[in-house]
Fold this sequence. Notes:
Blueprint (H helix, E strand, L loop, with lengths): L1 H17 L3 H12 L4 H7 L8 H38 L18 H14 L4 E2 L5 E3 H4 L26 E3 L5 H9 L4 E10 L11 E11 L4 H16 L5 E8 L2 E10 L16 E10 L1 H6 L8 E8 H9 L5 H5 L2 H4 L3
Parallel strand pairs: 1-4
Antiparallel strand pairs: 2-3, 4-5, 5-9, 6-7, 7-8, 8-9
Amino acid sequence: MKExxxxxxxxxxxxxEAVDAxxxxxxxxxxxxxxxGQLTAVLKQMGRLSAEERPAMGALxxxxxxxxxxxxxxxxxxxxxxxxxxxxxxxxxxxxxxxxTVRRGHKHPMYRALDEIKDIxxxxxxxxxxxxxxxxxxxxxxxxxAEEGHPSRDWSDSxxxxxxxxxxxxxxxxxxQVRAMDTMPLPIRIIAPGRVYRKDEIDATHxxxxxxxxxxxxxxxxxxxxxxxxxxxxxEELFGKGTVTRFRPHHFPFTExxxxxxxxxxxxxxxxxxxxxxxxxxxxxxAGMIHPNVLRMAHIDPEEWSGWAFGMGLERTAMRRFKIxxxxxxFENDARFLEQF
Length: 341
Ligand code: DAH
């Protein structure tokens, strides 16, 4: 038995010394000190020893157990230190490696165009309003004098949330006119930029989501001359001094009279080219004098107050401003395209 104990000790200490992974060390612990381990097996034989032999052998067995336990502890510490060392090596930081340069972005061309538009109007005393994209059809249509049956109310044109077509994704920023009239004291001068949604297929000039900028003025003695003067100034500020505009009669339910404003094509100067589809003019916005019904529905007396309003497509304006040929480029976020502005 003495010899058995000595063998176990020698073998175990050598094994602990050589071990190179925590899992292997654990296996060894079980092999020698576990319930079914070798040392335990020897201790179980103690009963067979004579009363004189037992104390000495017991002491020896305890010494072996202590030696093994100490060796395990030492091996564990060695493994831990080695693991730390390896980690430090793996995670070593070479401070001489050049850093990754952070590529600094810049404003998207469409938002640059919007900033310019905002500046122009804020300079004239307008307030910039923000409004909900999920809107009541009542504000998007009824309060704007577009009654049941108006073509733009059709389910094939607008996105509705409910069967009764009461809540929708706004199809225009014009409901912001109503929100302004309902909440702001007169006189009112506002612009309201934001997203609008229509059931259009995507192509070079259409997208089911696009941006508009709405504008509205309500004051005393406001006339069509104010509308033309202000929008001509907008065109000159955006596209340069001397930009030629024209106003064509049009129809919108919420204005009377209504018009569309075109700017002379920047590419051909009005002669006709592919950019203006041979027309010499490019449509910029819709506008008009606010319909008396719209004022009345907002409890504003059309005998006392008058106003004008406009709505312009922001993508289109940015395309014209930065000479971008395809609307899709604005939304694709291709850095190679965006870097050019
Ligand atoms: N809401 C119109 C559209 O989406 C644009 C518009 C036209 C807005 C005339 C106006 C306006 O405020 O007076 O086509």
